[in-house]
Amino acid sequence: MTYHSTRGQAPILPFDDVLLSGLARDGGLYLPQAWPHFGASEIKAMAGLSYAELATRVMMPFLDGVIGEDEFADLVADTYKGFGHKAVAPLVQLSANDWLLELFHGPTLAFKDYALQLLGRLFDHVLKKRGERITIVGATSGDTGSAAIEACRDRANIDIVILHPKGRTSAVQRRQMTTVLSSNVHNIALEGSFDDCQDLVKVLFNDQPFRDRCRLSAVNSINWARILGQIVYYFAAGVALGAPERGLSFAVPTGNFGNVYAAVSARHLGLPIRQLVIGSNSNDILTRFFATGRMQSEGVVPTLSPSMDIQISSNFERYLFDLHKGDAAQVTARMGAFRQSGSFAVDDHLWAEARALFDAASFDDEKTLAVMRSLYEETGLLIDPHSAIGVAAGRARRRDETVPMVALATAHAAKFPDAVERATGIRPALPPRLADLFEREERYDVLPNDETAVKDYVAKVAG
Ligand SMILES: *Cc1c(COP(=O)(O)O)cnc(C)c1O
After folding, report:
1. Separation of 256 CA from ligand 1 center, angstroms?
2. Does the Cβ of 254 fall within 6 Å of ligand 1?
3. Is beta strand 343-345 parallel, antiparallel or unpaired with respect to 248-253?
4. Is 297 among the domain residues?
5. 269 domain-assigned
6. Is-cis flag, bond preceding 32, omega within 30?
7. If both were cysteines, with which of 20, 160, 283, 429 could 136 make a disulfide (CB 3.0 to 4.6 Å apart)?
8. How are beta strands 98-102 and 294-296 bridged, if at all?
């Protein structure tokens, strides 16, 4: 299996090079040159598999030639064995044909674990084969750093350095990062803001000699392997609800478009997905796109669902490539217009094609809290603000009551306890495996907001 860039000017690469490079050299995103396809009998045969067995079967065609099937099966089994639910991604029934897919049973209680846990292991596998080592560097406002740290901890060929703004993350967020005491994990509490952290990381990556010397790398959300790891739970839900005979629909709380593009990918692979509903918060660029056919960037406002506070959805470029039937020149033109003017439009027939599959709806904080409250009253379930937007979008936009609607629960309620308490009056508890988080030993290094100090630190880590 080989991969090409959405901009058409980067080299065609096999999976291992796509994994390590992330963004394509022409600024585009990598996609498979040809999609594998599972026929009805193959999807039927997925019923009854464990999550790890299913994951191996769904992903194996994408890794052809990079790792053997037995070795990959072992790697996948190891990836999901520590998850907090034996189904890994369990389905919970909300009402007759209304379901919640719980994707918060990983180590950091958010769906990003499902792909990042796999990504860390795949990186390690490829690096070991090549006899190489890398240093992952990233900045976090608190939300995503822990998922990256958990993905890389104890991996033999990876060091990871994460900068967070000192005193400006919640205690739970900080402790999820700083109580990981593995020798390859390095937390910097920077005396500055999140923007300072991000600026310093950019400085490091833009210093090409430094970047090469320290073999810097990132685990960002445009990496193809992130999408790949997320395709699996769409199949798990589909097979559980009667695919291939029965179709189903998904409602996805969306920011960067990565999660919902994994649903598009599952559809390419043959899963009978009837409808995809995108849920947004007040940062509603995607909802406006599906309403108008124009992608128009605006400012970002902070909301109760911070992981969806985005100005642009970088993974949308993959869907744009699909819509243009692989015409990379068209994608390049649209993305160029977007970079120059903050806006692009697609032709009416493509907009219509997009709307044939997608619907979208946005919900402000008040509406989000109202959904959390009413779902709690209906079912007794506590859900987080991101998940609530998914549930609300699915209910608002579903076209066919006879088709199961599966809303993705992307974070555990205990990750956003203030919002949950505000909505329901109940403060959700951390699950048992994290209950002692506040007793655990912390380790981090405080550094000034200073380029040289951070560079010296990273250089030392990179050895
Ligand atoms: C990252 C994230 C999202 C958005 O997912 P995308 O793949 O960026 O669309 C939604 N909910 C939670 C809890 C997240 O962490």
Report:
1. 7
2. yes
3. unpaired
4. yes
5. yes
6. no
7. 160
8. unpaired
Q: State which H helix or E strand residue 177 sits in.
A: helix 171-178
Two structure tokens written together for 435: 């209950």
Residue 230 CA: nearest ligand 1 atom is 7
The beta strands (E) that lie in 205-312 are given as 216-217, 248-253, 273-280, 294-296
Q: What would you measure as the largest C-alpha separation in the chain, in angstroms?
A: 61
Q: What is the average pLDDT across 297-315?
A: 90
Q: What is the pLDDT of residues 257-290, one digit of tens each?
A: 999 999 999 999 999 999 999 999 999 999 999 9
Query: What is the CA(386)–ligand 1 centre distance, in A?
Result: 8
pLDDT at 351: 98
Tokens linked to 134: 């890398």
Q: Could you tell me if the CB of 411 is within 6 A of ligand 1?
A: yes
CA dihedral 244, 249, 251, 256 (to 10 degrees): 60
Q: Is 386 in the pocket of ligand 1 (CB under 6 A)?
A: yes
pTM flag (> 0.85) = yes
Assess whether 112 carries a catalytic annotation.
yes
- Please answer whether residues 150 and 107 qualify as being in contact, where contact means their C-beta atoms are separated by less than 8 angstroms: yes
Q: Which of 44, 112, 166, 202 is catalytic?
A: 112
The CATH number covering residue 248 comes to: 3.40.50.1100
Residue type, 459: A
Domain presence at residue 250: yes
Span from the CA of 212 to the centroid of ligand 1 (angstroms): 31
**Residues pairing with 93 in the sheet:** 99
- pLDDT value for 371: 98
How many separate domains does the chain show?
Answer: 1
Q: How far apart are CA 368 and CA 423, in angstroms?
A: 9
> Over the chain, what is the mean pLDDT?
95
Q: Does any domain span residue 35?
A: no
Residue by residue, what is the 3-state secondary structure of 105-128?
CCCCCECHHHHHHHHHHHHHHHHH
Distance 424 CA to ligand 1 centre (A): 23
Ligand 1 pocket residue status of 147, Cβ below 6 Å:
no
